[in-house]
Amino acid sequence: MNSDTTIAILGGTGPQGQGLAIRFAIAGISVALGSREGDRAAAIAEELNRKLEGRSAVPVRGYDNLAAIDAAERFVLLAVPYSGHDATLGVVKGHLAGKVLVDLVVPLAAGNPRAVAMPKEGSATEAAQALLGREVKVVGALHNVSAHTLNALEENINCDILACGDDVEATDAVVELIKRLGVESYNCGPAVHARCIEALTPLLIRLNMSKKVPFSHAGIRIWRPGRPGV
Q1: pLDDT of 23-70, one tens digit each?
Q2: Which pTM does this prediction carry?
Q3: One biological-process term from Gene Ontology (predicted)?
Q4: Which of 202, 210, 193 is CA-nearest to residue 220?
Q5: Are strands 100-103 and 108-109 parallel, antiparallel or unpaired?
Q6: Where would I find the beta strands (DSSP E) of 42-117?
Q7: Beta-carbon contacts of residue 21 (< 8 Å; ≥ 6 apart)
Q8: Tell me, what CATH number does 147's domain have?
């Protein structure tokens, strides 16, 4: 992947989108930050570029969602709240031909982030694929990393990233994109597995809100057998 690659992040003005924009820019990947309001995206992009001074030579630029998609070579990340998931895809569907949609959205239950309310398709990833049709390749990924972790630039991302999608080549390409962030990422199979991956998020939220884990913002790692750290 070339250093001049540009990705789009729709919903990029939220905490998760901003954290990903900064992390990808540090990794040498230009970011088209998308929002329903282009002016807001441009203002947030300016703020992020100030944070990136001395850390990255590639910019974050703000656009409305459709212009952000047009600026992306291949990858479009969807980081909107679940309440806006289907509506956003309905608006941008006609601009996604030839792109890979990376769906980050977790269908958390309304008013209860410690539970999921899966759509009839089984997961947000599957719902996106059903809405967009087979002409757009959908990959679910980046569901289980917290916005706090992404924005804590002095810290490494503390988890592995699980990806799934029905197109193997597209999923493998997303895995390689994510590895640019300095993390391990794995192709976990077809989109139906998003039901498991997305459902991990409320479990992590529940643990992080409890006193059973002696720290917050925990992540998940795929680890080999043997003693921890060996």
Answers
A1: 999 999 999 999 999 999 999 999 999 999 999 889 999 999 999 999
A2: 0.93
A3: copper ion import
A4: 202
A5: unpaired
A6: 60-64, 75-78, 100-103, 108-109, 112-116
A7: 9, 12, 31, 33, 45, 48, 60
A8: 3.40.50.720
